[in-house]
Amino acid sequence: MKKVSFSAFGGPDVLQLVDAEEPHAGPGQIRIAVRAAGVNPVDWRIREGQVLGAHPIELPSGVGLDASGVVDEVGEGVEGVKVGDRVFGEGSSTYAEFAVLSAWARIPEGLTFEEAAGYPSVVETALRVIREVGVQSGQTLLVSGASGGVGSAVLQIARDRGSTVIGTAGAANQDHLRSMGALATTYGEGWVERVRELGHVDAALDLAGSGVVRELVELTGDERKVISIADLDAPEFGVRFSGVAGSVPEALAEAVGLISRGKLHIPVEKSYPLAEAAAAHIDSQAGHTRGRRVLVV
C-alpha cells in the first residue's frame, strides 16, 4: 500500500510517499480502507519533533491521526461495527491507503468522507478546551484564532451550550465567524480594544499560538480562565497548555449528535491528493484556514 512517512524530523520536505506493509486490526481495533485523512497542526508539530511527549514515535514514522473510510477488518472483541460500514475516527499513520483506528463512529447521514475526516481530533480538542476553561451558559468566551477547524467547532459547541462567543480571525474570515454565531473582529493592532467594545470576556482560548496569551489574561483578569493549545510558552504566563487528548469515543459520540441535530458543521477548505501531503502541511502551518484541510486517498 501507499503511505506517507518520514525518517527524520524537519520541514515538509521530509515527507515521502512510500510503499509499506498493510497494517492489521488488533484487539479492540478496526482497519479501514481510507477515503480521506484529516490534516491537523499536531501532525506537522510531530513531524518537526515538537510534541513527542504526548505522541512518542519511532523513526521512520507514518503521519496522521484522523481518517474516514470503509471498515475492512474488525479486531478481536470489537462489537457494533462490521465490514463495509462507513466510519470516521482516530488512529495512527492515517495518511495511507489503509489505517488502523482505535476510536470510531459511523459517519452521520449526509456527511461525505472528506467532511467526516475533518472532525475527530478537532471535536475532541474543542470539547476538551471548553471543559478545561470552564465557560458556562450565559458567559462570554473569547476565541483567538477562531476560523480554523478547532475554532469552528468551539464556536458552534459553545453557542449550543448557551455561551456568547467572540472570535478573532483575519479580515477575509469575518463572515465565516459570523455564520457560526460569533461576534467577530480582526486580530492585529488594536485588537484588545476591539474585543472590549464587543463585551466583557469571562474565559479565553488561544488556538493559533500567535503570541497573545498575555493579552488574553489581561482581558479575562485570571490566568486560570485562559487555555492555549498552540503556544508552548503559555505556562510562563500561568496559563495551562492543553495537549493531551481526553476520550475520543465520547467526543465522536457527541459529534455525531451535534451533526445530526444540525448544530455542528466544519467546512473543508481544501482537499489534497495523498502525494501532496507536504503541500497540505505548508498550508496548515501558514494558518488563515477556514475550516479543515484533508487528504483524499
Automatic annotation (TrEMBL):
Its main location: cytoplasm. It holds the Pfam family ADH_zinc_N_2. It is found in: Cytoplasm. SUPFAM superfamilies: GroES-like (SSF50129), NAD(P)-binding Rossmann-fold domains (SSF51735). Keywords: Cytoplasm, NADP, RNA-binding. InterPro entries: ADH-like_N (IPR013154), ER (IPR020843), GroES-like_sf (IPR011032), NAD(P)-bd_dom_sf (IPR036291), Quin_OxRdtase/zeta-crystal_CS (IPR002364), Zinc-ADH_QOR/CCCR (IPR051603). Residues 10-295 form the Enoyl reductase (ER) domain. It comes from the Bacteria. PANTHER family: QUINONE OXIDOREDUCTASE. Homotetramer. This is NADP-dependent oxidoreductase.
